[in-house]
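Tokens as discussed.
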């Protein structure tokens, strides 16, 4: 199964949009500035901001509807918890049912005022998922023109393979946690499987949720030292730029999700596109994170 859709090398993420405290006009300005930097893909989830972030983005997009044709919109569904938006929900759980997937996608389209979604991800797989329900929902959303493509997030290789076996369309990505401080996907077979299937992964929390800058984190201290030593050859001193470059240099063609609302931080991620770590460079950072030499 092949598709013409390709993920961009960098994606702007809206997990913390609520914390940015931006007016719709300010958010529109930020979005246009991000586009000017060459980033045209924006990552959302129904549950971000306690189910309010998509609407905030929609209010900004409403100010310039023509912008929709210039961007790629990704969102996720399946995580539910008590909130003002859903007062009848009284517990934290996953819903991968046909009804929820369709309703969530339609809600995301309405909240973001975007007419359709480019890519819809199942945020997390329910332990008791019925894959036939997911397949039915994907088929309906695709045939109705509401969603162009589909993927997943936080899936193991076996769960990815299981769900794919029920689908007519290829899953286009698996958005997983990856950073110089979170090495599990490089060692547990997750990236190996995605590379085997020629699936481009997305990396959430590529800066380890800020732990990369924590002076009290021993692994963070070691990784920062290794990154800065390598950065000297590129005349680069920004830790975040070098951390993004480390991910971007991996042959799996990882797409980091940039979760900052500060334009200067987003620019630093873009700067990483011009830096290519050698395999030796890459492993030096890997060893620093582990705290010991490779076998």
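Sequence:
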């Amino acid at each position: 199964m092949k598709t013409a859709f390709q993920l961009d090398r960098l994606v702007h993420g809206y997990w913390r949009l609520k914390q940015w405290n931006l007016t719709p006009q300010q958010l529109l300005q930020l979005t246009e500035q991000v586009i000017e930097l060459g980033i045209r893909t924006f990552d959302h989830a129904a549950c971000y901001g306690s189910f309010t972030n998509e609407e905030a983005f929609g209010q900004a997009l409403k100010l310039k509807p023509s912008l929709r044709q210039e961007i790629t919109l990704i969102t996720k569904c399946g995580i539910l918890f008590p909130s003002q938006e859903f007062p009848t929900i009284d517990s934290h759980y996953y819903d991968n049912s046909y009804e929820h997937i369709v309703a969530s996608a339609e809600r995301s389209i309405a909240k973001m005022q975007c007419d359709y979604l480019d890519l819809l991800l199942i945020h997390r797989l329910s332990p008791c998922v019925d894959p036939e329900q997911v397949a039915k929902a994907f088929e309906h959303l695709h045939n109705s023109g509401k969603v162009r493509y589909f993927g997943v997030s936080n899936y193991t290789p076996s769960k990815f393979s299981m769900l794919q076996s029920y689908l007519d369309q290829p899953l286009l990505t698996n958005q997983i946690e990856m950073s110089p401080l979170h090495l599990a996907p490089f060692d547990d077979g997750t990236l190996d499987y995605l590379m085997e299937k020629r699936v481009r992964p997305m990396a959430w929390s590529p800066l380890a949720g800020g732990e990369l800058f924590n002076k009290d984190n021993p692994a963070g201290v070691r990784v920062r030292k290794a990154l800065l030593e390598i950065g000297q050859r590129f005349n680069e001193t920004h830790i975040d730029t070098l951390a993004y470059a480390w991910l971007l240099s991996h042959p799996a063609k990882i797409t980091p999700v940039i979760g900052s609302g500060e334009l200067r931080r987003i620019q630093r991620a873009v700067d990483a596109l011009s830096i290519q770590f050698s395999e030796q460079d890459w492993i030096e950072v890997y060893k620093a994170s582990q705290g010991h030499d490779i076998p």
